[in-house]
Design brief:
Helix 2 packs antiparallel against helix 3. This protein is mostly helical. The protein has one domain. The longest helix has 40 residues. It is found in: Membrane. It is a multi-pass membrane protein. Belongs to the APH-1 family.
């Protein structure tokens, strides 16, 4: 369902596709930089020290989250400049795409690239060797990983809307809330293999972020009711 966001809301608009690809590229660069720093830290440390290696893993995850949000801010600044250029070139003095639409598309770009990498890692594990659950571990590894990938794609979409709204209206607490939610969801992954401890809170946060993003985008309870009842 998460990848359907692209097919139904973005695929027919060339400008949105460009914004999505650029957003995916920004996320990819943030991952590359954070992975490079974590790799250097691991190589420079003692591989036999399990406590240190776990600490470096936690550091790598937290640093990656902060770097992703920093690149999200840089992307917002870039898109803001792009809107000014589009307005200057247009005949009617209006931008062909609003900042709210850019926020949504940029969020989908971040989410799709994040989901793509999660799926690649999952498929790499599926190649073997070994059988899931053979030593008494949970056999739901692939299923829960798929659900976690989906929630991250949706969360990145909602976070994009919240983050851009905070930047646009200088509500820094909204930006801070996005960073805290991102850190929380990433930190919950350390609860695995207790998958309930990571999936349930993540989906609750997704529901809260979805409702918040819906309200900030101009949605109302009446509009939602009309949509659910398929009324125009």
């Amino acid at each position: 369902p998460a990848f359907g966001l692209f097919l139904f809301t973005i695929a027919r608009d060339p400008l949105r596709i460009i914004i999505l690809i650029a957003g995916a590229f920004f996320w990819l660069v943030s991952l590359l930089l954070s992975s490079l720093i974590w790799f250097i830290a691991v190589k420079a440390s003692d591989p036999e020290d399990e406590r240190l290696q776990k600490g470096l893993l936690i550091f790598g995850v937290m640093f990656s989250v902060l770097l992703q949000e920093a690149f999200r801010f840089l992307y917002y600044k870039l898109l803001r400049k792009a809107i000014e250029g589009l307005v200057a070139l247009s005949e009617d003095g209006c931008s062909p795409i609003s900042i709210q639409q850019m926020a949504y598309v940029a969020g989908v770009g971040f989410g799709l690239m994040s989901g793509a990498f999660s799926m690649i890692n999952l498929l790499a594990d599926a190649l073997g060797p070994g059988t899931v659950g053979i030593h008494g571990d949970s056999q739901l590894y692939f299923l829960t990983s798929a659900f976690m990938t989906m929630v991250l794609i949706f969360l990145h979409t909602f976070w994009g809307i919240l983050f851009f709204h905070g930047c646009e209206h200088r509500r820094w607490w909204e930006i801070a809330a996005v960073v805290v939610m991102h850190l929380t969801v990433s930190g919950l992954s350390f609860c695995n293999p207790l998958y309930v401890g990571s999936l349930v809170p993540s989906y609750l946060l997704m529901a809260a972020a979805a409702a918040w993003a819906y309200v900030l985008s101009g949605g109302s309870a009446q509009n939602l009711r009309r949509f659910l009842l398929c009324k125009c």
